[in-house]
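Format notes (please read before filing issues)

Several people have asked whether sequences and structure tokens are stored in separate files. They are not. Every record keeps both together, in the order shown below: the sequence lines, then the token lines. Line labels are part of the format and must not be stripped during preprocessing.
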Amino acid sequence: MQRWMKERLELIRAMKESPNHLGEGECDYVPPLELVGIFVAHSAISRMHYRGELDTNSAVFLNAAIGAHAFCVLHHCTHESISQHNSEHEKFENMVFRLANLIVFFDDGYKVAHRKHHQRTNQENDPDAILSHTELPVLGTMLLALGGKTYGSIGAPITANEATRVHKFGLGPVFASNWVQDLAGMIEWDNMTMKMASYKALEVFASHKNYKKVSETLETTWKDAQIGAYFVLSLFFSRYPHRNGETMENEVDSFYNNTYRGEGQVDLWMMGEGPHHLHHAKSDVSYALLPKVSDDIDKNYPHLSTEARGNSDLYSLENTDSMPRKRTKNALPSQQHGWERTCEIRKYMEILGEDSVEAVKGFAKVAIENAIRCCNTSDKELLRTIHRRMKLAKGPGFWDGFYGWFSSVEKRGAPFHSFADSVLSDATAEGISSKREFIVDQVLEVAKSVGEKVPNMTSGEEIKSHYFDFFVALADTYATLSEQELFLNNFLNYVGGETAAKGFNYQRDRIAIIERVRHVLESRVPSDMLKGDFDINLSKSTEGNVRKRIAEMIIGPRASL
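Then the structure lines:
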């Protein structure tokens, strides 16, 4: 048997023996309920910024952390960690996946694309290699491209060497262009329904003067925060768990040379998935359980702890070609903050059967306190140093002048190229710390309103049946029915043409609209969109088809659309 397979199987057996490993087919409700709190907290931060109660840098940093938390949820949906491969929970997991995607503008194709990362870790065609195996200025160019309103599929066919050439020749703006991505076969339109709906909603806000302040707020607290989340995710989820790592192509290759155990800042920002080597051994144990499972293994099989390589020394990982050293017996255990959140969520899940208000407040409190902790305890000097080494202030290569494209980023409230002196400053963290009580209170105020609008849920089946109600209640918290109808009229005319909203009556059709949206969210997540060896653009769908699908999600099928 190959060495890496033997080592992996040993870890899998140890993971299964943990008393905190879920039973076969048992639904993991913690990530979905955390997502309720994530949405409440994210939207409350936006409301505070809209009202002038929270400065731009603090709002972006907090929502970037919340966005990274949302990624934890969607990521484990791709591994069926929530459903545990049980078809009874599939629709629920699909809805959770698509809702979490909205926070960070991911698309349906990520499920298969991310699995390719697991199948090809550290190989040339690993879709994460552009994040883990490139130099920091190249990574910065990729982040700027991803941070635009692009439809390129996550996991598109671009290697680390190709990304380096894009950067070297100043082609970042070209790479970020939707028409170029479409021409190159990097866009799978069938995956883009919810992502396009998000972008079109932002465009509607931007195109109506009555929404001017809403538009400015969301471009800052949603879109700018997105690239902040990508910055964190690219470093601590993709880069440092694998940088300088080996492939597992030969029988003598070691599993522990392929994926490292997260320590220090990596463990902090992974929010529960610090034992990343365990995740690559058995990927369907969610971040909500992994810290405790890791702790169980350390106690029952201490030799496995020292087999792993720990990545606390990020300086060496970034500045040498060497893998990190093996862990010692005195190495710190995995941080248990993720498990502590799980215990809190489970407590509030029990309360949900009797008091939905207190339960939702609990979910939201867990989310916002996690974001504040990450922002305040993270190593800002490290983040600033990495950011500055990306050299984002000036375009690379001989096409510096072409990088006027970056000016489109500058128009927003928190331009990514200046994060080191703004969002990531010590002053930002100090401001968050000084307003901690106020921030938490405002989040709980929104949570109370949501909780008042949803029923008590006494079982897992009731949570699944009423899950979308949380998000409808959140919309109702921020906008009256007449305000929702006005926006949807504008939205329909924008995506479907001037006649799309003809005969539309939101208050009459509201229940039917909610059910159509629910149906889309629950529908099967495509598992064959990335066909063959990164042949992406093989479907017949077009951007126009997706626009029609979005309109029909609201008004139902119409022959004229």
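For reference, the curators noted about this record: Confidence is low (pLDDT under 50) at residues 395-410, 529-538. DSSP finds 27 helices and no strands in the chain.
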